[in-house]
Amino acid sequence: MFDATRPNLPHRPGVGYKAQHFNDIMADAGPVGWLEIHAENYMGMGGRPLAQLRHLSEKFPFSVHGVGLSIGGEGPLDADHLARLKHLCDWLNPASFSEHLAWSTHDSAFLNDLLPLPYTQATVKRVADHIDQVQSTLGRQMLLENPSSYLAFEASDMSETDFLAEVVARTGCGLLLDVNNVFVSATNLGYSPQGYIDAYPLDHVGEIHLGGHDEDEDETGAPLLIDSHGAEVVDPVWALLDYTLAKTGPKPLLIEWDTDVPEWSVLADEAKRADAALNVVA
Amino acid sequence: MTSPQTDFRAALLDPQAPPPPGVENPDGTPATKRFDVYRNNVAVSLTDALEAAFPVVHKLVGTDFFRAMAGVYLRAHPPTSPLMMFYGTQMPEFLAAFGPAQSVPYLPDVARLELALRHSYHAADAAPVAPDALGQLPPDTLPHVTFAFAPAVQIVPSDHPLRDIWWSNTHDPIPQIVQTSQPTLITRPDFDPVVDALTPPQAAVTRALMQAEPLGDALRHGGAAFDLGPLLGLLLARGAITSLKT
């Protein structure tokens, strides 16, 4: 097993940090016990973003959440980008580092989206090799997040939960369970979200994500949910969270809101609801 | 050599292309609208990033033009790094060559200024010298003094009234902008970059100083009648100079 710094976020609600909420959070963070940043937004050399982080990190534990490492990419990891991640993690010393089961870079083009992977043994090996490289470079155990899926691959010959379990077994990484992504993928691909949770390697969950999604339909009229991080968490996702927490007990629980970011009070209300869900199982 | 991600990437960036092979709906039929979710995410997120990066270019050309232009740009120049804060590096040259933008000749300079502002915003912090630092030096050493500048300091050259155009679109409209060459100086006294107009001789002297020419040599770039006082006052007031060496 990988021996390194392990994630240790508090088992409390956290929120995705947005610069416009700096004053509100410093004044009264409500039940929010930790903050998450997208690593790539803090890879400048100085200025306000890093100054704000310096202040906030005196008060809050941080989760660094990468969105650009392309762990599922066919090519090698971007060494410059991995070095930037190491620099940020060494400087901030976050309580957790996480990334996505997805790819975003190919032939040196970064496509700014979390793109899907077929679930095969070849993909397991590629993803596991990249996670080994990340964990040994950072000196940290990382958490791997399940994606929102909109389509399936003809080539896939294993379930997402089996895929994740195998990556965990090979690399010793932990998992970031995004309950909204489970709900979105299950709806889009026609399986039971509770069944997914039942099959998921819950012992390895180091963090849970919650966020909002948009509703659409495909050309056949089948529901097509789109992960947007731009709205409140819907009731069926809260219910799936309760179902999950009943099995795992309290976990670090993040509210993600990245587009059409509301004023702080809206986010604080979502965090209160997350706090209530955690208290039920505490 | 082709691969699944090469096919996927090519189809993502080409709105006319069919989805890549092997992507399916839950019933096993080829995914079209579902693939379009990814295609749309890529185009919309990159267009949004460009809109956030070039707000004055956006304002000058309007949303419809900007989005159409961004659609061409993002396919010609997809990001080459996950640092979206610096996306759009080729925008000035792209706009200079983009036929439909030719009626706004200063657009590439505005894009150059907006790029420079973002680099300045994210540049490393640096403590400025005291406002009287130059006065503390023995007068006979002044011609030999070299200056070090904060990493946030940049000069954006322009044959257009660039600072006034920028100011008019970000602060108060200037009723009559005089057609003049207005290089701009970008500094970052605190956390927010500041844009000042320079005269072409001031820009030439500053550029020489930034290349570590001694003050005496740098002044020659300003011409015979150059008055250093106003430029030096501005550079010191903006915290642009971080050290002096004799």
UniProtKB/TrEMBL annotation, chain A:
Chain coiled-coil ranges: none
* Top-level taxon in the UniProt lineage: Bacteria
Pfam families tied to this protein: MbnB_TglH_ChrH
Concerning SUPFAM superfamilies, the annotation shows: Xylose isomerase-like (SSF51658)
Q: Which family does it belong to?
A: Belongs to the UPF0276 family.
The protein here is known as UPF0276 protein PSJ8397_00835
Organism, as annotated: Pseudooctadecabacter jejudonensis
UniProtKB/TrEMBL annotation, chain B:
Tell me which stretches of the chain form a coiled coil. Answer: none
**Annotated spans, Disordered:** 1-32
Report domain Putative DNA-binding positions: 5-95
Recorded protein name is Putative DNA-binding domain-containing protein
Taxonomy, superkingdom: Bacteria
Cross-referenced Pfam families, in alphabetical order?
A: DUF2063 (PF09836)
